[in-house]
Amino acid sequence: MKAVKIPEATITRLSMYSRLLEWLDRRGVITVSSSDIAEGVGVSPAQVRKDLAYFGEFGTRGVGYNVKDLLHYTMKILGLTHPWPMALAGAGNLGTALCTHHGFRDRGFSIVGVFDNDLTKIGKRIGDIMVHPLEDMPEAIHSLGIKIGIIAVPPRGAQEVADIMLKNNIAAILNFAPIALNIPDNVLVRNVDLSVKLEVLTFNLKYRGSVAGEPD
Amino acid sequence: MKAVKIPEATITRLSMYSRLLEWLDRRGVITVSSSDIAEGVGVSPAQVRKDLAYFGEFGTRGVGYNVKDLLHYTMKILGLTHPWPMALAGAGNLGTALCTHHGFRDRGFSIVGVFDNDLTKIGKRIGDIMVHPLEDMPEAIHSLGIKIGIIAVPPRGAQEVADIMLKNNIAAILNFAPIALNIPDNVLVRNVDLSVKLEVLTFNLKYRGSVAGEPD
DNA sequence: GTATGTGAAACCGTTCACAGCA
DNA sequence: TGCTGTGAACGGTTTCACATAC
Which residues, 6 or more positions from A139, have their beta carbon under 8 angstroms from its beta carbon? Predict the structure, then answer.
């Protein structure tokens, strides 16, 4: 935690390193080198070392990194030492998929409230939680200490949902609606836009013939 | 189409401009300025102009851009003048969500084959298409001229699915499995990793207090 | 010998500021 | 006058290469 600006890309990669380390740890691997990690997530070894160097010195020269230790550090850096309850707006197919998404629970994220204003969905059960009307979201946010909201409603309703979240002091939003939300600067937003991802592919298919590389 | 390298971020934004233009066009808007576009997608006007400049001169000085024309150009640049049939592997919740995802069809993408090797899913109907066994995928890829594959299976099965796609000359893969796929350089891959997105949020919540900005 | 940690260099993308044109 | 198009400046990220430490 220096007074240095840390590139977002570094955080993204750190998250990937962390998951790889979890995998290695489960397999009983004790030590990894920066090249091992690099190969595992598809970046350069120098990049791995630079990324880690933002946060401290975790390795041993001539040896590498202790898997368990580095895993622990990455989790701590990413703020994953405690669970993050989340509120989900939208109980459609996407919402259902997110609710049951294994990858979330594996990393300490859990959707503790699902909200929708479609009467045919309210009362339904997704996994082990029930869909509640949107108007119940504020109370849930406060009583369950929810800091992160997920928007998985159609574009039309997205800003409305965002506004409700904002009014109730949500700190961060993961938005799946393909529109630019109007969000104040003190609230974090990240968008997941599936069509954009596909269009990057079609562009490349069309103009570059075929070149690989994964910047994102 | 110059001999200039075009930043991936430019393509990402182009895709967003394109969708905004569609929206404006449907509303009967005739002309937009770079500032209008910039505001609509949350970037700077200079950025919009730079991005467009990679591909030509589409505007009129002192006036702006013709919405219909620019929409047409962006679609063409992105390779969206013809439909892109896609094969989906994985008929779980995520697969189902992707199948019924409106945003795809709106932009010319359509999933024309869904494959899974879970016997309880094969034969099921998602929307208007049926889930087929994974072994039927090769034939579908060839007979339907599929160039893009989507992987929405659990991490364990992802590489296997990828290998099948590769063996059948898929040109691009959109991967939702949170692992680094082993893919040759001549095949395009983009990963959608939901946990990573969330961990970027938790990192920022923890260390930056609250700062906005959407780099991705 | 081997692999980390790190300044310096190279590279890339964004912003600036203004020339060019309707 | 107003807004586009663009070379140049800027800032930030990645790569390089080597000193450092085990």
Answer: none
